Amino acid sequence: MAGEGPNPFSHLLSELKIGDDTHKYYNLLDLKDPRYEHLPYSIRVLLESAVRNCDNFQVKEKDVHNILDWEEKQKDAAGVEVPFKPARVILQDFTGVPAVVDFAAMRDAVKDLGGNPNKINPICPADLVIDHSVQVEFSRTRGEDDPGGGGSCGRCQNYGQPWCVGRRPGAQSYSRVHPISQGTRSRPNSPLLHSRPSSPSVYSPTPVGVSQHQSLQHPVYVLQPSTPVSGPIMVGMQQPWHYHPAAPTPTTPLPSLLTQVAVGDPPGAVPNYQQQTLSYTPVLHGYQTPVYPAPQYSQMVQPQHPASYYLGPAYMHHGSAPSSRPSTPDWHQPPHSDTHHNTDIEDISLRPCGVHRLHSRPPSMPSGSQSVLEAASKSDVPSTPSLKLSVASLPSPLDVPGIPIQDEVCPFHERISEWSDALQKNQDLEFERNFERFVFLKWGAQALENMLIVPPGSGIVHQVNLEYLARVVFSKDRVLFPDSLVGTDSHTTMINGLGVVGWGVGGIEAEAVMLGQAVSMVLPPVVGYRITGTLSSLATSTDVVLTITKHLRQVGVVGKFVEFYGPGVQQLSLADRATISNMCPEYGATVGFFPVDDTTIKYLRQSNRDERQIKEIEEYLKAVKMFRNFMDASQDPSFSETVSLDLGDVVPSLSGPKRPHDRVAVASMKEDFIQCLNNKVGFKGFGLPSDQLVKTVPFVYEGEEYTLRHGSVVIAAITSCTNTSNPSVMLGAGLLAKKAVEAGLCVAPYIKTSLSPGSGVVTHYLQHSGVTPFLTKLGFNIVGYGCMTCIGNSGPIPEPIVEAIEKNDLVCCGVLSGNRNFEGRIHQNTRANYLASPLLVIAYALAGRVDIDFETEPLGTGTGGEAVYLRDIWPSRSLVQQVEQQHVVPAMFKDVYARITTGNQRWNKLQAPEGMLYPWDQKSTYIKKPPFFEGMTKELPGTKAIENAYVLLNLGDSVTTDHISPAGSIARNSSAARYLASKGLTPRDFNSYGSRRGNDAVMARGTFANIRLVNKFIGKAGPRTIHIPSGEQLDVFDAAERYREEGHTVVILAGKEYGSGSSRDWAAKGPFLLGVRAVLAESYERIHRSNLVGMGIIPLQYLPGQTADTLGITGKETISIKLPETFKTGMTIPVTVGERTIEAIMRFDTDVELTYFQHGGILNYMIRKMI
User: Fold this and answer.
1) Do residues 1086 and 986 lie in contact, with contact meaning Cβ atoms separated by under 8 Å?
2) Is 737 left (phi over 0), alpha (psi -120 to 50) or beta?
3) pLDDT tens digits, 117-164
4) Which residues have a Cβ under 8 Å from the Cβ of 635 and sit 6 or more positions away?
5) End-to-end CA distance of the chain, in Å?
6) b/e 918-940 (16+ beta carbons within 10 angstroms → b)
7) What is the per-residue burial (b if ≥16 Cβ within 10 Å, else e) of 1077-1103?
8) Are 411 and 904 a contacting pair, CB within 8 Å?
């Protein structure tokens, strides 16, 4: 509670006893103010922070009263400024690297000015997750015998073909492995049936067979086929097993390993998770098929688990054997109740990436034989059972025919894993390209105090935050207070779904918070968003968030908080809420907040949070009335305004083709895309002439001819924390893939498909549920753990496709489960990009085009020649929910996050410099000491008027931070490429702009280098401008350098929403280095405007109703700005444009921003403060 003065609210500090522990907390109820309970829950968090941090310096007593009086103060047209000190800061590496670079440079500057450089440390805790560096360079792996080049099992054109691709150790290619003997009987007392219990007290490890049932506590009923095995048996796990095709019973999938555990019920009963011992008997993979004398049931089965073996189920029945048993168990019935949820499973021994961990081979077990699942019940209280499961397996699957053999080690888990070729290669290349960055970050991890750095390959920052880093309630020095944060990524808001207030800020502002400064903000209006009803069986959480995004864009919530309430919230899982909060920047709000409730607590348990911590969270939030029941309308707070949504109105949707809030119903997608082709160029138009709308272009790919046309899908990516954090849509996608493969559908080989989970937990439950082989079969194999396609790290697409697109001006498409689809962001050759649920990503990949009417047009032709429609393979909501309930368990979170900082051996082996000051390498093209503090003095520099500046760029509406500072690949003909080539680098080593944010020379040259940037001076897309004095057309950087050499400053003209999109500090730093002194725009995105101020750039805004067009400004005029001697927030100043003068608003919104500007920027202010 340190501060500049005593806390005037210290009398509110009270004790709270939780279990055996006594904590303290600021009891806001002791304010004895009735207004408190009417405050929105998000505003209560701001109030608590102000009360706890009040020192009458950064946070003043009047600030507390202003927040308490929110209902009146938020109506003030001038805005009421309040400070906010978040509990922590979160960063990703694109913004984290430049932040650490700035910290290192600030240390040098403090030392040069005679101060103590060791003072430059994060004061506020900071977490940095390295997740933005990995790219989809490799996706589908290839084999020389598989011309389609599919996943580790190839893309077999004839589903059911009796071969599989297996990779042999050390081999450079793949070979076909044929099945061996089938139908071999094993003796009941075979040593293959040895069972090793996890608890010797339950039963002894005696062989289990028909004659050995007495060794168990209860009888075992073994379900096996009654007829010898015949027909096509697939050796590879990406292919299904088919027992006798003439069997009279329908195809019924048996349960996946460690799931669908029926204990206490006979076969055919509803599976549950109660009591007694569990046993499984092996069906050996390819070698033997045990057939037992009794009891037997005829059945066709398909394995669902991606491990290297398949297990037939055995049931424990409490008491005597059941008198009757149905012949066909129904594995799709839901559990009896939530009391049987798999969160009762307290531990699972898991192998890498979710496959079960390998142990030693039992004696006498022949090579290639597989393991036996053993389990023992452990339950102190019968009504709350607990199963402790473990797996005894072989030391290696390398000698098992048909298994995807490899000698690759998953960097995430340090051990051999299946289907990891693309993952391995992408991460190898990531380390190769980013070696200098990673060494630098490792120096930061060692040299900077109070900073946690999560190594690459661990997941996406927001998903790791949700699943692991978020505290929900902090406990510091025994004082409890709400978790809150700011982050250097606009989608920091995802954590709002967990009941944590947080939002994105610029990297510059985040650095100030790390140095102990408060965030200065205008007390926001809070829009109450009431949710009612229930989702239809076809809608997903992705459809909900796309609907909300469009709705709130129409309402207008920029600069406002949105808080969700109403009985419909109770229908949303925590993951659904996080998905909705994730896209908060897309609907324009500062936060999209869901207060903590019972669903939050349930998720915390599911994600393996400490039980004591969970108890603290629940008791503390209830004590300060920040815990709510959405079904109780009496708890609804006051809002500035309210809007509502009935979940029953949500329909399957996409958004695009160029903006995330342009929602399109799937039913209207075909018509909408065709209209976009012909519409004039804009957010919903490509301006194609009518005679060019129907065009087919043949091309040859890997020896076969295909055709492209407008609407062809060339990228299909299941990516981004928006959706990969949500098990319902991920498992739904897996189930859809399973049905698609079973129907005989496949994805065209030229479509770049990929799956990039947001954490290793996703890999666990996808494999655990058995859907991974089917995703892999369609090309959606795991390519990396990080923010990949969604941020433009989509990697290359095949050259024949690029040539066909570019030569024929085709509007080809990307479909991704992301949150951003601005033009030029996903890939330079996908002019149309659509956001969609993971299920729809697969659907459009199967269709191969977006101009399809799923209701009337089939996805493709099945193995029997029948038309297969999307409705035929779409999984039911009840099935998805059941699978999620059974397959997302705490042990997965425990396994993943137990090694979160040490799980990457490459990272562990990096040798970083030691010492307080970083030894800058002058030859590095990744890390370079920035020039921001060159010539800095202890005294304020004073403000200078802008005289006769030229307009560097004349821009229109919705210029994004991607346009200003792209994160994607570096074009070979760009200024940045020429600079890197001058340093001896080849295009292969250019990497991306995002990865080179630690080098100002690259980033300055990359400013406004987006190929989709439209400059009115040029009239067409491209990173070019006019040098006005000469009329010469130049790259933007080259023009800026020409102006600098001539002694001219420059300004930028822009339209509405300048700087929208991801928060990106280089979108402000880059223009600063180009010599930009001011921007004159119609409106600004909140974070970007703040970043401009933080770099000493003046954000000017036209008066209401005025634009460059209405004022007759062409941009060819010179511009002069006379700055006042005394600055005030929101003041209007004269701007001379050519021969006349106009008025413009100077968008310094707070007194703190004025202070930053007068110091030349926020970092300069912090340095002077530290001296």
Assistant:
1) no
2) alpha
3) 998 999 999 999 999 888 899 887 543 233 233 333 333 332 222 222
4) 628, 629
5) 23
6) bebeeebbbbbbbebbeebeeee
7) bbbbbbbbbbbbbbbbbbbbbbbbbbe
8) yes
